[in-house]
Amino acid sequence: MSDVPTPTQTPQRSSANGRVGAAAGKQTQPPNAADAEMLARAQAGDHVAFAQLYALHKRRIYSLCLRMVGNVAEAEDLTQEAFLQLHRKIATFRGDSAFSTWLHRLAINVVLMQLRKKGLSLISLDEAMEPNPEEGPSRSFGAPDLQLTGTIDRLVLEHAIADLPAGYRLIFILHDVEGFEHNEIASMLDCSIGNSKSQLHKARLKLRDALRNQNRQEARP
Hints:
Elements: H1 33-43, H2 47-69, H3 72-89, H4 99-118, H5 125-129, H6 154-162, H7 166-177, H8 182-189, H9 193-219
Helix pairs in contact: 1-2, 2-3, 2-4, 3-4, 4-8, 6-9, 7-9, 8-9
């Protein structure tokens, strides 16, 4: 296989209305016969079909990588690595989940491996998955967070998302930005649906606190 081309498109910017922006790009309809045929041909080694899969999914994988690492060049490298992993493993896909969910799981593993290599002082995904008995649910997990709706400067919101610990940021991006449901996230991350909802709740609380602090700073004379 020739080198996977580097994505050139930039991800959709986020907004604060409902889910944060990019969920509109998510394909919610079941795959049609043409998509299924394309996947089958790619699994059989058809490079043209694989290139078509790449063109179909590269934007969202790049968006995920960029939001997780915050660096364009690094996100491009991770996107390429994710699709190289896909090329090696595509024949093992058995359709137990949606293909996009399975592909995102590959990309997430690539991103988390990179974060661990960098040794950043961030909450790891494993730590973020641990339930905290001291933090009881103050409201329904997974419900819209009205504190995060309304008009919020997009740049401020982007910075607040980027400052979330890695585990929280990942689930927030998958749910509120990419538009995946909790059952899909649970499949990607090998966690329970309850844990996915819990971590999204914690991520939103941290975001809300960060935005409040930013507003206080801006209000100072």
